[in-house]
Amino acid sequence: MPHSQTAVFRRLVRDHMVDAPVVVPLGATAAETVARMAATRASAAVVTDPDGTIHGILTEQDVVRRIACRRIGEQPIDGLMTRPVLTVRADDQLYQAIGFMRRKRLRHMPVVDDSGRLVGMLFLHDALAVATGHLVEQIDRLTHEESMAGLAQVKAAQVQLARALFDDAVPAPEIQALVSDINNDIYRRVLRLVVAGMEGEGWGAPPVPFAAIVMGSGGRRESYLSPDQDNGFVLADYPDEAHASIDPWFIECAERMTRALDALGFPLCKGGVMATNPLWRKTLPQWKAQVAGWMRKKHEAMLLFCDIFFDFLPVWGERGLAEELRAFVTETAPRNPMFLREMFGIQADHRAGIGLFNRFITERQDPAHRGQINLKLMGTLPLAEAVRLWALRHGVAATGTLARIDALHAIGKMSDDEADRLRAAFVLVTGLQLRQQLADYEAGRPVGNFLDPRTLTDREREALRDAFKAINDFRTRLRSELTGALI
After folding, report:
1. How far is CA 363 from the centre of its chain?
2. pTM of the entire structure?
3. Cβ–Cβ < 8 Å for 79, 33
4. Which architecture, in CATH terms, is 337-483?
5. Which of 158, 171, 405, 475 is at 20 to 30 A from 426, Cα to Cα?
């Protein structure tokens, strides 16, 4: 991986974890465990069952406090280890792990996979090797303690990080992914605060397991600097007669979550695409029935709901609920070609911003932006929509635009040339859009999607024309493939 002053923000825990120096089974003796730690100069031993599930950890401090100078060498480690164990996932962002370990004053932390099984160990001194001194303060701000004031600092630090990455020549899609990850982490931390608060106020724990999902650009990990809220809940199934006692808990949770997010700079969705709306708060079987109904009825409003929904991504809770819903969508959409045709129909006018004689299509109605290009409406939107439809048509489960292009290319549904042109178009348009948003923010203007083409260099203008042509060429092909139309 190339050296970069900001590389720490693009790396995962798995990039820096090592094998756990000492792993012992439940029932191992204290003497055996300490001897192995001494032989390997390990500062901790992880205690697991045969399948790798972590049950405890024995650290040097535990040895000093509970074992040293006491004749308990043959005693099982089970009663001496520390538990529960703080862990980090292999696919978590490295900077988040660093911030967490610094807050908790941890020198090492076991790394687990999605099922909670031990896969390695992360040492703080190794992780900090990729974070130069001045970045540690930024990491601390981005991983501030879980309070509303702390999360407000996280949100404020996000723009500074985006600027640092942009100046470090990091491609815009990577910056978008990190901005999205920070936003989704704020969702998780807000929900932890909300659930804890409700428990403390007598509401109790969630009455059934649930997953919180984000949709739209957040679900694609393509957020910019000021996304609004597009969220929902997927609940585990429960009997109909229990609805009156269960749903009020989730209504309260959704209202608290959306208010908190709004206070942190995530505006409420004007279209009501939030978990406070029962349309976006359902059990898993209800979600499946609703999606199947949307595909059958093909009403324009329902097609628009699908357009918002299909990019969903779980951000908190029981991920398995969201993953099962994703599998249902991936399996069902290819079996409904008429639905996909209708979806394309409501998007048919969404073309990239280039017209006759290779002239850019610019804003004419809004005086504040007259002569400017709306890079979202005329660039990223028509590309993301078209790639999403083609991915649904071919059973691709990925949600990100570039990930979908890569998957479609891998299964032969995009040629080398088409995939290359679309990747380049996405990188260019998102880069220009992010650059403009940073400039808007730093100038104190409302952050938006408008770009004055006169501010581009000749080379950038030609590249943008090529990008728009690539998007329109792809949409023309989809029109033919999905609808049978020749033009």
Report:
1. 32
2. 0.84
3. no
4. Up-down Bundle (1.20)
5. 158
